[in-house]
Amino acid sequence: MSSLPLDRRNALTPEALAMMDTIARAGSFAAAARELGKVPSALTYSVRQLEDALDVLLFDRSSRQARLTAAGDELLREGRRLLAEVDAVANRVRRVATGWETQLTIALDTILAPRAVFELIEAFYALRVTTSASEQPEPPPTRLRLRHEVLSGTWEALLTGEADLAIGGAGFGDASPGIECLPLGDIDLQFAVAPHHPLAKLPEPLTPELIARHRIVAIADSAHRLAPLTVGVQPGQDVLTVPSLAAKLEAQLRGLGCGSMPEPLLRRHVAAGRLVLKTTTLPPRAITLHYAWREGNGAMPGLALAWWLDQLKSPTTRRALLEQHEGLVL
C-alpha cells in the first residue's frame, strides 16, 4: 500500500463502520453502492482509504463477491458492537438531559437484608418514564452500581465521592458539608454459636473472660482512610476475619468461631437448630444504622437518587432492609 497511512482513530468513523456493515450485508460492492446511493468506484475508494489507515486488507480481491478477510471479519464484528454502543450512548445522553443521572452508585453495608435490597432494585427497573429520547415509556436511563461495604467503609465511600448514596452504615459521624444523614433504624445483635461449638454447652451467662478463650469471627471494616472499627473482640482473643456478614454466618454455622449477628438473620437458623443463642454478661448490643447522600451543592437530587430517598422515607422499607434476611445473602 503506497499511500501514506491515515490516522487510525480518524479513519474508524461511524460512517466507515456502517459502510463495512452495508457491504457485508449486501454481498457485493455494487449492491452496497446502490443501497448507499453512491457509485461503486467511490465505495471502493473509501474501503481502500480505510485499509491504508489500518494497514490491512479487509476484503479478498480475488473474488467478485465482497468476501471479508479475517481482519475484515474482526473489524465488522467489532464495528457492529461499537455502532450499537454509539447509538446507546446517544440515546442515554438525550434521556439524561431530562434529569436522570447517568449512573447512581450506592454503598450498601453487608448488614442489610439482601432480599429487601433486590426488591428495591426490581421496583426501580420496573419504573416506566417518558423522556425526550422516546415517546414510549421506558425503564429509567440511570445505571445502578452497587458497592458492598462494612462499618466505616460505608461512610467513607460517601465522603470520598465514590458513592452517591450510602445505606446501612453504623459508623456515620457528624454530618459533613454537602452530605445529609438520616437514621435507618436500630438492629439488635445477639451472641450465637454452632451447636457443636465448645461454648454451646457451657452454663450462661458467658463472661468476657470465657468468650476470650475462643476464636471470634469478625467482619473486616472496609474503610481505607478512616479509622476502621473493631466490634465485639475481647483483648487477646483469637480472630477469624472475614469480608462480609454472609461469610461470618457461614463460619459460625461451621463452628469456626463465635460472635454476635443481627437477630433477624439468626432467627431461622436458631429455629432450625443450626445455631444456639447464648446470653452473656456483656452489655446488650443494639446499633443504629443510617443512610446518607450527597446533596450536590444545594441542587435538587437527580431523579434516580430522589426515587431511592423517597423509598427510604417509608418505615416499612427501612424495616425490611433490617429484617428480611431470608433467601440470598450479599
UniProtKB/TrEMBL annotation:
PROSITE patterns per UniProt: HTH_LYSR
Pfam families xref list: HTH_1, LysR_substrate
Top-level division of the source organism's lineage: Bacteria
Domain HTH lysR-type, first and last residues per copy: 12-69
Keywords associated with the record: DNA-binding, Transcription, Transcription regulation
Family: Belongs to the LysR transcriptional regulatory family.
Protein name per Swiss-Prot or TrEMBL: DNA-binding transcriptional LysR family regulator
Organism (species): Rivibacter subsaxonicus
